[in-house]
Amino acid sequence: MKLTLPIRRFLAEFYGTFILVFIGTGSIAFGLGNNLLGVAFAFGTGALIAIYTLGHISGAHLNPAVTFAFVLNRRMALKEAFIYWVAQILGALFASLSLSMAAGTDVYQGLGASGVDVSQIPLWVALVFESFLTFILVYTVLAISQRKSLQPFIGLIVSLTLVGLILVGGPVSSASLNPARSIAPALLEGGQALEQLWVYVIGPLSGSGLAVLFYTFLKFTDLDTIA
After folding, report:
1. What is the distance between the alpha carbons of residues 195 and 62, in angstroms, rounded to a whole number?
2. How far apart are CA 117 and CA 18, in angstroms?
3. pLDDT for 171-219, tens place per residue?
4. Using alpha carbons only, what angle is made at residue 210 by residues 208 and 81, rounded to the nearest 5 degrees?
5. What torsion, rounded to 10 degrees, do the Cα atoms 62, 54, 13, 9 define?
6. Distance between CA atoms of 156 and 221, rounded to whole angstroms?
7. Which of 12, 55, 62, 148 keeps 20 to 30 A from 122, CA to CA?
8. Residue 227: pLDDT band by 50, 70, 90 thresholds?
9. Number of Cβ atoms within 10 Å of the Cβ of 88
10. Is the model's pTM score more than 0.90?
11. What is the CATH number of domain 5-218?
């Protein structure tokens, strides 16, 4: 049976986001919570795998903020974006549910929910950081995806960008940069993660919108630009 393109893209975004969240938050769930470098490279590895194995099917957005940017930049219709958003959230949720099967064991340390200690970091600071970090990530995606010479290196560039941003923003805002990655653990764990979830939805989406605006101002066409 041959699947239609929308179904193939749905499954690609579902599985790709599953890979990202399963490997990324799984590193936190099973012992790397205090090792920011390890966590950063776990997320980078998840992104790398997903982009190179699924990018040719759906573009491997893996992130509602990236899809939002493609809508604002008129590279994607809103109707198609809803398919991506549902797939991304369900993929992240399935990843968190899979990790939670280890709950109660000695190695399990939670789902790696996004959040900050408000006694140390005000929520508005976390919000600004999430917005700015996502701005950099989304601008990078928008820019390199239009360069012919960079097509073979997209996965590597995006993955290393994600690693760097997590290393910078992790101590301040948890460096989610991805609403789906934050929504899934928050829904399952509740509590503070759910109370602070708005930071990890509004922050990345606002950063995404600003990245599109900035990219529009700077964009120009040359022989290396993909039409």
Report:
1. 24
2. 27
3. 999 999 999 999 999 999 999 999 999 999 999 999 999 999 999 999 8
4. 35
5. 140
6. 24
7. 62
8. low
9. 31
10. yes
11. 1.20.1080.10
The stretch 43-72 carries a mean pLDDT of 97
Look-up: residue for tokens 């959230």?
A: 89
Nearest to 28 by CA among 126, 112, 125: 112
Give Cβ neighbours of residue 34 (< 8 Å, ≥ 6 apart): none
Distance CA 144, CA 159 (A): 13
| Residue 164 token pair | 């760097």
Query: How many whole angstroms separate alpha carbon 187 and alpha carbon 148?
Result: 40
CA distance 50 to 95: 14
The tokens of 77 are what? 């219709």
Query: Which ranges in the chain belong to alpha helices (H)?
Result: 5-27, 36-58, 64-72, 78-100, 123-144, 154-173, 179-189, 191-195, 199-218
Residue type, 159: S
Which whole-number Å values give the CA distances from 187 to 20, 94, 96, 193, in the listed order?
18, 12, 10, 8
Task: Give CB contacts under 8 A, 24+ apart, made by 50-57.
Answer: 50/15, 50/16, 50/17, 50/19, 50/20, 51/16, 51/154, 51/155, 51/158, 51/159, 52/155, 53/16, 54/12, 54/13, 54/15, 54/16, 55/154, 55/155, 57/8, 57/9, 57/12
Q: Which residue has the tokens 């809508």?
A: 71
Q: Where are the chain's structural domains?
A: 5-218
